[in-house]
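Q: What changes when 2'-monophosphoadenosine-5'-diphosphate is included in the input?
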Amino acid sequence: MKPAISGLTKVLGIIGSPLSHSLSPLMHNAALDALGLDYVYVPFPVSPDRLGEAIQGLKSLGIVGFNVTIPHKSAIIPYLDRLSPEAELAGAVNTVNREGDLLVGYNTDGAGLLVSLKEDLAFEPGGAKVLILGAGGAARGALAALGNGGAVSITVANRNREKANELIGHFAGVFNKIEFHSISLEVLSSAEHLQRFDLVINTTSVGMDNTSFNGFSGSSIKGVSASFYDMVYAPPITPFLELARIHGCGTANGLGMLAAQGEIAFSHWTGLAPPGGLMKSCLLTAVKGN
Ligand code: ATR
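A: The predicted holo structure follows.
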């Protein structure tokens, strides 16, 4: 059991907006409780116009570490003292650790994605051809991790093509052996196109509230052997995953990634690994209960 909150309790947390649906407080407090650590993990809703003030305040209040989520993952960078190589490469931070008097930014999303791809889809990025849907912060983390993991070809499909071009322009300068393409989301309407990929990852918010991609239908997935990963985890089976699943493709949602990035963040803050599988089982229970 975690000790009662006292003057010695260390504070962890998450900043983002909105945070009402975040499952991070649940899984981190469960892990702190299981290890009997005198910490508490608190949600701090922060609007974009108050980000600078919030970081200053957290620093003054002696926060030990915190997670960063939508929409601050890239915007926070100027307020940090140092970045890990992964955060620098992705241009996105999801975990901050106080080291002495410095705030150091990490990106544990990319490593979390690779863990989940391996555990949930038996997928290894080495030699793979990947299609990433979306070109925001989540796509950046995925691209950096898959590039480091040895993917040979990465295609980015985004509603706003210019953003996809910018993203691949940035990463083409970093990974000069990877073949990069940008394409419109209409790629999802064509089995001929989809056949070229080993993995399709949705990094957009499409699928929350059961929304689906225009044009993605049974005919566009016929004969396709790619695996499909959706970073969305609520609902646990989005229309995107459901369609892939009924056509026999491997599928997984983002719960595994959420748990794995959380485990790595927890170790940065406490120096300890949370009990194996605890975070994921908390998340599974929470999602089932909704
Ligand atoms: P995050 O940090 O979570 O990636 P973001 O930076 O706001 O969030 O990026 C959101 C991504 O989801 C973008 O790629 C966005 O596409 P646009 O760049 O065209 O805006 C994509 N997205 C959001 N809603 C979408 C929708 N209804 N259809 C298609 N793409 C959508």
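Observations recorded in class: The mean pLDDT is 96.
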